[in-house]
TrEMBL record:
<dbReference type="Pfam" id="PF14759">
    <property type="entry name" value="Reductase_C"/>
</dbReference>
<dbReference type="GO" id="GO:0005737">
    <property type="term" value="C:cytoplasm"/>
</dbReference>
<dbReference type="InterPro" id="IPR028202">
    <property type="entry name" value="Reductase_C"/>
</dbReference>
<dbReference type="InterPro" id="IPR036188">
    <property type="entry name" value="FAD/NAD-bd_sf"/>
</dbReference>
<dbReference type="GO" id="GO:0016651">
    <property type="term" value="F:oxidoreductase activity, acting on NAD(P)H"/>
</dbReference>
<dbReference type="InterPro" id="IPR016156">
    <property type="entry name" value="FAD/NAD-linked_Rdtase_dimer_sf"/>
</dbReference>
<feature type="domain" description="Reductase C-terminal">
    <location>
        <begin position="325"/>
        <end position="412"/>
    </location>
</feature>
<dbReference type="InterPro" id="IPR050446">
    <property type="entry name" value="FAD-oxidoreductase/Apoptosis"/>
</dbReference>
<keyword id="KW-0285">Flavoprotein</keyword>
<protein>
    <submittedName>
        <fullName>Ferredoxin reductase</fullName>
    </submittedName>
</protein>
<feature type="domain" description="FAD/NAD(P)-binding">
    <location>
        <begin position="2"/>
        <end position="306"/>
    </location>
</feature>
<dbReference type="Pfam" id="PF07992">
    <property type="entry name" value="Pyr_redox_2"/>
</dbReference>
<keyword id="KW-0274">FAD</keyword>
<dbReference type="InterPro" id="IPR023753">
    <property type="entry name" value="FAD/NAD-binding_dom"/>
</dbReference>
<keyword id="KW-0560">Oxidoreductase</keyword>
């Protein structure tokens, strides 16, 4: 078994292979120098905890690979897959044979040409080394400008503001999380961010940017916005999304989705090349409900797709993937989501959406024809778990009963399920 990539999906794949009884050779080829590590903490505890290091983020301890007899090849790059010979070709000229190959190549931060990667005042956050560079650059008096008001951008805004930095966020859309969250929540998050001291520039774009040479008295970075504002920053963070790593797939002739940029896979992770599978941020599959190609960037999706692909590689019938779930921590709130927002949803609220509360707690349920399709919980993870079966089974609900805070969510879920039987 050859696994190309050494991120979350790869780490799940090797563990799944051994736990399902595979005793043969497993090779993992990864371009980074580090063992596989968790990426969600990079924008949070990795920056905020002075003692946090890469070793604390490892998904598996170092001795796991030795005990599980995993051939780990770090700082190596696969350039092409030869499907006719079942062979992977490496940048250094090595050739690795395989019976089955899993592409778990992940992605890289989307870059802007005007903001060069590697400049000491320009930051992108995708790798542990990116996080360490940013961490060592920040101090309590830093002026930070973040381009991008998505999940990563707002996590970085929350963390850097908590560290004492003066933070501005530039978002081209008119709202935060425009593609991933209902407008009602986007407005609430904007209010909470502003209350925390973050300055938001929504519906704004950068007209011009200038980088000063190190050592000059002026701010290292100055930006002119199309709303007439001029911002000065010690550090500029670009957080505008991810580009899937599909170079090896394209060179090898695998089908890649023109819309999402991901490697096309079926519901078991198979690509267009025999015996080659893909999973995680680099993979695109068809949404069973909409019939559209969909690429999901999340911790849970990487784990689920890797598990499904490995079971299929082993000739087993994989269990269905879990209902999509995502979480983020920002501005002293744990935010969790089930499903995805789609057009035509009616949102029902439970609890008070007080942006100024010390610990706000509320739920939003997106329904269509009384059937819940999407749920969002702020500091209410236990309640979200109770609602999960309703979404997974498509059980109709009573919107008025859901909004009744005097009825515990667990009881609401039980009554709703019983009424549907």
């Amino acid at each position: 078994m050859l696994i190309v990539g050494n991120g979350q999906a790869a780490a799940t794949a090797v563990q799944t292979l051994r736990s399902h009884g595979f005793a043969g050779c497993i090779r993992v080829v990864g371009s980074e120098a580090h063992l596989a590590y968790e990426r969600p903490p990079l924008s949070k505890t990795m920056l905020s905890d002075p003692d946090a290091g890469v070793s604390g983020l490892h998904i598996h301890p170092a001795d796991f690979y030795q005990d599980a007899m995993i051939d780990l090849m770090l700082q190596k790059t696969v350039t092409r897959i030869d499907g006719e010979r079942n062979m992977a070709l490496l940048e250094d000229g090595q050739q690795l044979s395989y019976d089955y190959c899993l592409l778990a190549t992940g992605g890289q931060a989307r870059q802007l040409p005007d903001y060069p990667y590697g400049d000491p005042h320009i930051h992108y956050l995708r790798t542990a080394d990116d996080a360490l560079k940013l961490k060592h650059s920040l101090n309590a008096s830093s002026r930070v400008v973040i381009i991008g008001g998505g999940f990563l951008g707002m996590e970085l805004a929350s963390t850097t503001q908590m560290l004492g930095a003066n933070v501005d966020v530039i978002e081209a859309a008119d709202s935060l999380l425009a593609r991933n969250a209902p407008g009602l929540f986007s407005e609430w998050l904007a209010q909470r961010a502003r209350r925390a001291g973050v300055t938001l520039h929504l519906g704004a774009k950068v007209l011009a940017a200038k980088l000063q040479k190190t050592g000059q008295a002026d701010a290292p970075v100055t930006l002119s916005l199309d709303n007439g504002r001029r911002l000065e920053a010690d550090h500029l963070i670009v957080a505008i999304g991810l580009v899937p790593n599909t170079e090896v797939a394209l060179r090898s002739g695998l089908a890649v989705c023109a819309h999402t940029g991901g490697i096309k896979i079926d519901h078991h992770g198979r690509t267009s090349m025999p015996n080659v599978f893909a999973a995680g941020d680099c993979a695109t599959r068809i949404n069973a409900e909409t019939g559209e190609f969909m690429r999901i960037e999340s911790w849970q999706n990487a784990n689920e797709q890797a598990r499904v692909a490995v079971q299929a590689m082993l000739g087993q019938t994989p269990a269905a993937a879990s209902f999509p779930w995502f979480w983020t921590d920002q501005f002293d709130c744990n935010i969790q989501m089930l499903g995805a927002t789609t057009a035509g949803l009616q949102f029902v609220q439970r609890g008070e959406m007080d942006a100024g509360a010390a610990v706000p707690k509320f739920l939003l349920l997106g329904i269509k024809d009384r059937i819940p399709r999407y749920a969002l919980a702020v500091n209410a993870g236990a309640d979200l778990r109770a609602l999960r079966p309703l979404l997974e089974k498509g059980i109709p609900i009573d919107p008025q009963a859901f909004g009744d805070v005097d009825l515990p969510v667990k009881q609401f879920a039980k009554k709703t399920t019983a009424a549907a039987i």
